Amino acid sequence: MPESASTELLATATGTAVDVPEPEIDTKSDDPMEDFEAVAFERIEDQVNQLDWADLQELVAGILRAMNYKTQVSPPGSDLGRDILASPDGFGFEQPRIVVEVKHRKGSMVLTTVEN
After folding, report:
1. Per residue of the chain (116 residues), what is the pLDDT tens digit?
2. Which 3-state string (H, E, C) describes 36-97?
3. Is 85 exposed, middle or buried (0-12, 13-18, 19+ CB in 10 A)?
4. Which residue in 64, 65, 113, 116 has the fewest CB atoms around it within 10 Å?
5. Rounded to 5 degrees, what angle do the CA atoms 79, 82, 88 make?
6. 44: how many CB neighbours lie within 10 A of its CB?
7. Three-state DSSP class for 12?
8. How many CB atoms lie within 10 A of CB 94?
9. Cα separation of 6 and 79, whole Å?
10. pTM, whole model, 2 decimals?
């Protein structure tokens, strides 16, 4: 039992006046979902930042495939700035044609896209 509660009970029992401090109000929300979105984005960002360039390239290609594009991922080495080619048909004949260059350095990443 908190000391303030026992002091107040003793004062009430003996009929004496006591200065009881106001209870602290917990301003923290009891809603566990309140900051859920912010926490989720932070965790996703942390996970993506831990990827190396090849894994990030595969992640971007996977996102494009989830958007119903067919993708071609360039093998490691000189790719002339074309890490991922994406289009509805997979050959680049149908529009939009998307060319992605993935740059991933520790602490930062850049995705450059060009639609033809």
Report:
1. 566 777 777 777 777 776 766 666 666 666 767 788 888 889 988 888 888 888 888 999 999 999 999 998 888 777 667 888 999 987 778 888 888 888 776 665 566 666 66
2. HHHHHHHHHHHHHHCCCHHHHHHHHHHHHHHCCCEEEECCCCCCCCCCEEEECCCCCCCCCC
3. buried
4. 116
5. 135
6. 10
7. helix
8. 12
9. 76
10. 0.59
Amino acid making up residue 51 = L
End-to-end CA distance of the chain: 72
The tokens for 95 are 């529009």
- Long-range pairs for 55-63: beta carbons < 8 A, 24 or more residues apart: 56/102, 56/104, 56/109, 57/83, 57/84, 57/102, 60/84, 60/100, 60/102, 60/111, 61/86
In this structure, the chain runs to a length of: 116
Report d(CA 40, CA 56) in Å as an integer: 19
The residues facing 87 across adjacent strands are: 70
